[in-house]
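Hi X.,

You mentioned you wanted examples for the new student's onboarding notes, showing what a folding record looks like when two proteins sit in one file. Here is a clean example. The first protein comes first, with its sequence line followed by its structure tokens.
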Amino acid sequence: MGKRFLMSVFVVLFITGCGGGGGDINIEPTTIDNSVNDSNNTNVGGGDNPDDICASYTNSGGQLIQGSADADGNCSYSASFLDAGNPLTVDMTIPALPNGGAHLFDGSVFVGVNYDNDDDLAASGIVRGGDGPTLTVEAGATVAFATSSDFVIVNRGSQIFAVGTADAPITFTSISDVNGTVAPEDVQQWGGMVINGFGVTNKCDYAGNRGESGFSTSDCHVAAEGAAGLDTSHYGGDNDEDSSGRLEYFVVKHTGAQVANGDELNGISFGGVGSNTIISNLQVYSTFDDGIEMFGGSVNFENFVGVYVRDDSIDIDEGWNGTITNALVIQSETDGNHCIESDGLGSFSSLTDAEVESKIAQGLQSAPTITNLTCIISPNGADTATHDPGAGWRFREGIFMNISDSLMISSPGVDSSDNNYCLRIDNRSATAAAAGDLVMTSNILACQDRDRGDTIGGLSPADWAEANGNQFATITAATDPTANADTSLVLLGGTPPIYSTDFSTMVVDDAAPTVSAPASGRIGAALQSAGWAEGWTYGIFDGSRAQPLWFE
């Protein structure tokens, strides 16, 4: 690996929304400091060359590789700048651009080199996050890609630091969005993101028990989604405290692609990403496949928003044991699958019962904690959906879920399918529920179709959930869950009606909720007084969306 050079370009940014054609870029202004030098003290900013505002790096041959500025204030980068076969191997900064400019990439951006064996990793000095190159993205920057074949990979050992603010979020989107030619719910305009780390995945074999001294693995290299040819990357290891960097006030839009090996790229895939990765105020908007999907690891999320995700908004597999605190999921009226689809063990169907129990005894199953989630899902069936009908929470294949103080709602519309259930618990996870290893507390669920799945101690999943401190509203027709409608169901309010009402004013079946007062102080994503999703997200609030929400 060549010597790293850190290029920092700082500019004054006055960003306005891109106009014309129904595009949906909406980024607020910020101010950035204005001085630059690379590690060789070569001035790459503030000169007379207009290209100096663009991202650049110095390659191993000492050549400065730089984007080119155009008359519209954008920076363009050909596939020769970075692409699948030409990954970033030195530190680089993507600056915020003045006057709403965007960084337009004709190729993929792969950060660091992919390795698929322990010897090559050791020889390269890559054993943890921070050993490889770092991609830094400044607050307020917009980064856009040309086609669904273009995507972003942060390889193991490498890191991304994309730290926006509420006034200047960072947006990764499509060039069609920047050009204003994208419709609000368009997907597959570019690929999406894959972040890989050295965290635990139960696709690998381990000695010892997770979280205890002596726990280890060797040759743990699981092919990530999008792994085909030059696009191949790997994740996995035994370091649940690994760091892949930081994403904050970060928005990903219009993603999705089916790649050569049959994978469908998500908004962001987190493969073995560790708990020292900071994820706060993250949004995925209009994605073809899943919103976020965690394949093992221990990364935690605070303030997550998923809007118009066509498959599962939150997908869990392979032993992820992190947390989600405060999350808002809003599906399209006619398209979207599960709010949560969650699996405990990867390749579950190919494991024997003994292998399943052995992995669980080692603590390798998924065991996440989710608190204060609001899901507003599509009540429509497979005839209109890209993947499967709108549905709520599915727990299966040995996941030990702990979910509390949350709302699961499809009541604004009429269920059109028997598969528009609120709750489903299957196979080894039903056993976990009976044993007290799968926990649901103080959740309120409002769907016509209550549940699906295996019995739990002789009870249906819904009856088991109610016996353990949760409540299902009685829904027989389309029911507005807001106080504005003066109905027997009052869970949400505000403008738009996405906010949890105060627990003391909630109404379920014409009465106060039967669940215990929530430990967190509220049920659902946010009270209106909190407003943590305002100002930086797209697609929800007036002034930063292309269409109203379907249930307004």
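Then the second protein repeats the pattern, sequence line and then tokens:
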Amino acid sequence: MATANGEHQVIFMPSGRRGQVRAGETLLDAARQLGVEIESICGGRLTCAKCRVRIEEGQFAKHGIASAATHVSPSDAREASLLAEAANGDGAYRMACAAHVAGDVLIYVPEESRAHKQVIRKSATARVIDVAPAVRQVYVEVDRAELGEHRGDWGRLQAALAQQWQLTGLTIDLPALRRLQPALRSGNWAVTVILGNEREVIDVQPGYKEGLYGLAVDIGSTTVAGHLCDLRTGEVLATEATMNPQVTYGEDLMSRVSYAMTNPGGLDKMHTAIIEALNGLAARAARAAGRQLRDIHDAVFVGNTTMIHILLGINPQELGGAPFALATRDAVDVKARELGLRFHPGASVHVLPAEAGHVGADNVGVLLAEEPHRQDEMTLLVDVGTNAEIVLGNRQRLLSASSPTGPAFEGAQIRFGMRAAPGAIERVRIDPQSWVARFRVIGEERWSDGWQSGPDAPVEAQPQHLAAGICGSGIIEVVAEMFLAGIIRGDGRFDPDRPHERVIWEGKRGAYVLATGDQTANGQPILVTQDDVRNIQLAKAALYAGAKLLMNRMGVERVERITLAGAFGSYIDPQYAMLLGLIPDCPLDRVSAVGNAAGDGARIALLNHHKRAEAAEIARWVTYVETAVDPQFQDAFVGAIPIPHATDAFPHLESRLAAPLPRAANGRGSDGRARRAERIRARRV
């Protein structure tokens, strides 16, 4: 029903926004007036077909209106043609830029027409991303050049952008300026402009075009993982991963810092290696999505501070010793071409900020994704990798720290260690009587005791992938199982008083036969050596000590939730992680894995430029605790080396403990380890 001044009630769903709109206004203008963001690249010129909406018909008592298709102006032939293609002839749909208000109406805006779409990642905690990228496309019609008119084509484009899109004060990137005149003339003075951060024209394309793409990358010490995303819809089009080629120059961070300091040209070599790796990864992702490398218009990178320094060509030598000074703690924005990245010529790279010397942009990405600063629970968030980042806290306070776990969790420094790839042993169970291992390798659904080999074995029983090595989750489980079976003692040493055919002795050092030669790809047995066990002990002790240090600083004895991030964290069995002492005590149902949260944080910042400002705020709010010079960390580290982390969380495992539980090496125990060990032993007896 029209009001006295000729206005009608217009309601947009699912947002529920409503208001009085003058008769004759387009639905697109009505949406803008009411704060409803509807996609429109062409600016209402019936070109892009992105502003499609549905007119709901009927009485809506809840809203007090009657809505009908006749309450908007009828469509003309041009709109009908677009609708026939975009909406499969569904007469309930209209183009918001072409339908004029003629009565009370209720409008449904479908997901694909909303300017801020939502992408929900189904994981331990559902993640919602409002899509609002830093780059966007607009279609403009520009005045023709005329004799005696001296503004220049860039001046005419500026005027068109100001008039048609209210965009002022823009600059233009030099490569875009070079393409401007040919684009205007081949497009008959109509062009699609790509804008970066609403302040710079980074491309001009003739006529109407669409398609914006971005790359979110987590540059890990060992692995580089990237997601190619559609910046209009938020969809992940392709995911690629590669080994970080800098491993050649050192497996851990300090080795790479040392390489840059002691080798002439060392920094340049590592910088060139990561740039080439990023170009290769991006090219594979683009190819998988049917795009080209130059179609990447924006990128967000995260990584630890050493990785980011090397990426930017900054010598990381100051990170090698106290006071561990960063070149900059702030976010960095740089043109991709300045780094040697072969993306779109105008593309920018945004690097999230760091927290401190050894807690970098990757941890900020995790915080952006998991949002512990919005939670009430006391949460321990651990990003497990070559250098583990640990965060403890809630909405009241957050503490962070870095623990030098080394690359053992990722298969390095393990004699038969390997990356998580087909053939890698990822799950292990050891019979406590026979000491024979059952294991499962990546690429096989069955456990090894279900395999049959040899010429007489049926094809369906033969494994597709024989064992080739042990990945991170496998080495965690096998060390825990070796302890439970009594193969190793609480101090991590093989027990010389229990000789067995599954244990090979090299002098005074034992090695456990995990897989026999007929179970492996090369016919040689896969062993777990004394050094392997020791490296896992050192890595888990560093991680646990970092967590305990933060708990002491926070003044809490227990945490309410533990979140394991990182690719490795996703594959750890929480009960084995807690048994070995990677993480403090926590009910198992409160321990969850969230995958590559750092990469997700990069993706969030890529798809929503507002989150970049939030990341900067988080990075400055977190209190960093320096483990390297804290004596409490050293004490906790020494106390956490023995196995197990004695806990009451494993009643179903206690019956399998075949050896007395040891006291810590210093006799005091760690975190009540000795006292709880005595309780478990008493119950077992």
